[in-house]
Design goal:
about 260 residues, mainly alpha, Regulator of G-protein signaling 20
């Protein structure tokens, strides 16, 4: 009996040694990948927390600006309600006071201007013929911007021109209070992820904007404006120059005026 017991003990000890040995075996590639994925997930959570902190600080800055302007809504005690950067999901993000709605509609009418070439002063033939030489010629011409904007509307990217024009208007403003209000309005209209007119910006430029929002100036969106300008220049402008919209415009300008 003692021999049988010793044999059983030896077998158990052998199994324990095997289990210990398995624990010392290096992790398989899949296990290592799972650990790295877990680590990356933690890093993303920490990054999101830092972004939310920046957003909240920026929201507090806007709240202070609205206090100075004497335009503080009744729910001003909740800073999240001014979170135009959309870092939270509270229902108040969809709520706008009546005065804000009026300001928004006025602002959009002012920045949108005319809707197409027909509603504005048509370009001269010489002006229109110069547009293929450079995108700058299109953007420096009021008629060029109008015609190009009409083309962008057909491509569902009109917001790029609207944002660029809003930034140009912002640069002309010198009143600090008005600048802060326009900066907030531009953010809500073109930068916020909840806006239907959100423009396409990379993460670096968005980080720059979030930092700039802490102390809004007339140049808060300067880097974003340049990125959108470059996007239109490289993407939409070549298509416009090869479009029927542009060729039809040239034909209409080349035709002699009809006799009365």
């Amino acid at each position: 009996m003692s021999s049988a017991g010793e044999a059983a003990d030896a077998k158990l000890m052998s199994e324990d040694i095997k289990r210990s040995h398995l624990l010392l075996i290096p992790q398989r590639p899949q296990e290592a990948m799972d650990l790295r994925a877990s680590s990356m997930g933690s890093e993303r959570v920490e990054m999101r927390k830092r972004q939310m902190q920046v957003h909240q600080e920026a929201a507090a800055s806007v709240l202070q600006a609205r206090h100075r302007m004497g335009n503080t809504p009744t729910n001003a005690s909740n800073a999240c309600c001014f979170c135009w950067c959309c870092c939270c999901s509270c229902s108040c993000l969809t709520v706008r006071s009546e005065d804000e709605t009026i300001q928004r509609s006025t602002f959009e009418r002012r920045t949108e201007g005319t809707t197409n070439c027909e509603e504005s002063l048509k370009p001269t033939l010489e002006d229109a013929r110069s547009w293929p030489s450079s995108f700058e010629r299109v953007m420096k011409s009021a008629a060029g911007r109008s015609c190009f904007r009409q083309f962008l509307r057909t491509e569902f990217s009109e917001e790029n021109m609207m944002f660029w024009l809003a930034c140009e208007e912002l640069k002309k403003e010198t009143n600090k209070t008005v600048v802060e209000e326009k900066v907030r309005q531009i953010y809500e209209d073109f930068i916020s992820i909840l806006s239907p007119k959100e423009v396409s910006l990379d993460s670096h430029v968005r980080d720059v904007i979030n930092r700039n929002m802490l102390e809004p100036t007339s140049h808060t969106f300067e880097e974003a404006q340049q990125q959108i300008y470059t996007l239109m220049q490289r993407d939409s402008y070549p298509r416009y120059m090869n479009s029927t919209a542009y060729t039809d415009l040239l034909k209409s300008l080349e035709e002699p005026p009809s006799e009365p």
